[in-house]
Amino acid sequence: MSQDASKIQVYVYDLSHGLARQLSPVILGFQIDAIYHTSVVVRGKEYYLDQGIQTIPVNSVAHPKYGQPIEIIEVGETFVDDSILQEFINDLNNHDELKYHAMKYDLFTNNCNHFTNTLIEFLCDSQLEERILKLPDLVLNSPAGQMLKQLIENNA
């Protein structure tokens, strides 16, 4: 464990780039603000799920794939050092029936937000905000949500 606490942030991106807010009332019958993609930032590194667990240095301009975060959530602090964090990431890559590998990804039940939640729980015993974690359930519980899920599964 390191002596100094390190700040933990969650970067929140909108994969729809604003379209979810505009189109969701028509498609779902209610408004959602975004299609969230989240990552965990600690000590200048961004950890996220995209075709498996990825790590990149934090870029002050924008994420190369997701652009600028629409929100940065201050989650807490951790005393977990880099070697223990890397060991945990390695364990996630190799356990739980490869839960965080690309082949196990599921937009509704096993996505980047679930990974973010697992990582911040490990780092500081915190949880990702429910408005982000529960968004797939909210969508699936709508009649249009079930139709969208079938379309996605049939085209996967």
Automatic annotation (TrEMBL):
GO molecular function, one term: peptidase activity
Xref: InterPro entries: PPPDE_dom, PPPDE_sf
Keywords from the named record: Hydrolase, Protease
Gene Ontology biological process: protein modification by small protein removal; proteolysis
One Pfam family, short name: Peptidase_C97
Keyword Hydrolase tagged: yes
Segments forming domain PPPDE: 6-153
Signal peptide (residue range): none
Entry similarity comment: Belongs to the DeSI family.
Protein's recorded name: PPPDE domain-containing protein
